Amino acid sequence: MSFDSLGLSAEILRAVEEQGYREPTPIQRQAIPVVLEGRDLMASAQTGTGKTAGFTLPLLNMLSHTNAQFKGRRPVRALILTPTRELAAQIGENVQAYSKYLTLRSLVVFGGVSINPQMLKLRGGVDVLIATPGRLLDLEHQRAVDLSQVEILVLDEADRMLDMGFIHDIRRVLAKLPAKRQNLLFSATFSDEIKGLASKLLTNPASVEVARRNTASAQIEQSVHFVDKKRKRELLSQMIGEGDWKQVLVFNRTKHGANHLAEQLNKDGITAAAIHGNKSQGARTRALADFKAGSVRVLVATDIAARGLDIDMLPHVVNYELPNVPEDYVHRIGRTGRAEATGEAISLVCVDEHKLLRDIERLLKREIPRIALEGYEPDPSIKAEPIINGRQGSGGGGRGAPRQGQRPGAPRSGAPRSGAPRQGGNAQRSGTSENRGSENRGSAENRPARSRPAHAGQRRTGNAGSGNK
Ligand code: AMP
């Protein structure tokens, strides 16, 4: 099936062709005709499915048809709400690209940057406004934006907006919109809360679902490596260095952890930048641009900062730490294997995270293949320390301290193990608070693992990433 048969205008088809899209993705095939009909839509689609074009192409098509009616200052006729600045910026870029041959104006507004330029641009008239809820309300309070003529509302990544506590802001925005409008709701997951929102927001919606809910794309090769927390950084550096990975997105649970890991990787000679909510918008934009341009090999991100990051052909995603919320795993690994590309998603799992792994596998309804890495077998004497709200008491992990009784990077004896990691072992580690809690000894770690050396036929060193700069 080609884009030509979807009912889009020649100008839009031309822009799409210039993007190099050969055929519509499943979500585009399903969503575009429905939106063009003017119907409300409830779409279950993750980032990476091509959902953005699924709503922006028909939306632009519709606005461009009635464009001539609007003389003088243009009212906002399409409002796209997103949870994060990055997602807003990326949708904005897409809208720009797809509307290249149209005379529509679009604008992205989000917090964390000066409001005045946004107010000025709004004064000049905008057809398509892409916004995060908080900044939109600020602009509305200052009477800088009039939402009374919005014809189409898009809530993108609605699940994430609710997770981030935007429900009240969304309600406030909805109250400013005209009652008669078209509503499109996109969400990767459909909790009862989302269904509640959808039932209030949407009228007789068409329902579109691609890739079964809460499943990960088949194009992503997933694997789990069991490894002690304190050796994760070493293993990651080695994988990047020896695999000669050029672009890898690494997830951490905390901002501090993301910063620390980026620093460590830089010390290992691997260029890395951290991206998280405490960074200024300028720093985040710069880090992303450097990463896309290839001058930074590793982007270390927290879940929230990574929402909506759109990086073409991202080949490697590493879960340096598993997310607390299993759905975030699906979001994270959705950064790779996008559209037609294939990708690899590797999770480095320490003993504290076995329960999180079980939760993720329950959600996926399948087991993620284990790969045992020679020389990185977990120390069976290390006990689990519970993870509470994404943090652990000691904070001592991953700081490069030598493992008990083990020189960092010292070659280990023994063939690759199957069944990693080892179970049991009552020996206590001394001197750290990591002795607390040991409930995470579940079945996840008992399953057979595929075995392969850390990097077949290559030497291991304690500072494997060095020399890459
Ligand atoms: P999205 O799910 O909207 O974040 O899109 C994921 C990626 O797929 C983006 O990089 C798009 O540029 C790309 N994309 C969207 N539609 C297509 C298509 N029909 N063919 C190839 N790539 C696409």
CATH superfamily placement of the largest domain:
P-loop containing nucleotide triphosphate hydrolases
Q: Helical proportion?
A: 25-40%
**What is the succession of H and E elements?**
HHEHEHEHEHEHHEHEEHEHEHEHEHEHEE
Strand count, sense and barrel status of the largest sheet are: 7 strands, parallel
Terminal Cα separation, in Å?
A: 45 Å
How many separate domains make up the residues? 2
Q: What fold name stands as the CATH topology of the largest domain?
A: Rossmann fold
Rounded to an integer in angstroms, the radius of gyration calculated over CA atoms is 24 Å
DSSP helix count?
Answer: 15
* Average pLDDT level: 80
User: Which class of secondary structure composition applies to the elements?
Assistant: alpha/beta
Spatial order of strands in the largest sheet:
3-4-2-5-6-1-7
The unreliable regions are 393-469
The CATH architecture classification of the largest domain is: 3-Layer(aba) Sandwich
Categorize the overall geometry: elongated
Question: What distinguishing features does this structure have?
Answer:
33% helix; seven-stranded parallel beta sheet; Rossmann fold; 14% strand; 15 strands; 2 domains; 469 residues
Question: How are the SSEs ordered, and which strands pair?
Answer:
Elements: H1 10-18, H2 26-36, E1 41-44, H3 51-66, E2 78-81, H4 85-98, E3 106-109, H5 116-123, E4 128-131, H6 133-141, E5 152-155, H7 158-163, H8 167-176, E6 182-187, H9 192-201, E7 206-209, E8 220-226, H10 232-243, E9 248-251, H11 255-267, E10 272-275, H12 281-293, E11 298-301, H13 303-306, E12 316-319, H14 326-333, E13 343-349, H15 354-364, E14 371-374, E15 450-453
Parallel strand pairs: 1-6, 1-7, 2-4, 2-5, 3-4, 5-6, 8-13, 9-11, 9-12, 10-11, 12-13, 14-15
Helix pairs in contact: 2-3, 3-4, 6-8, 14-15
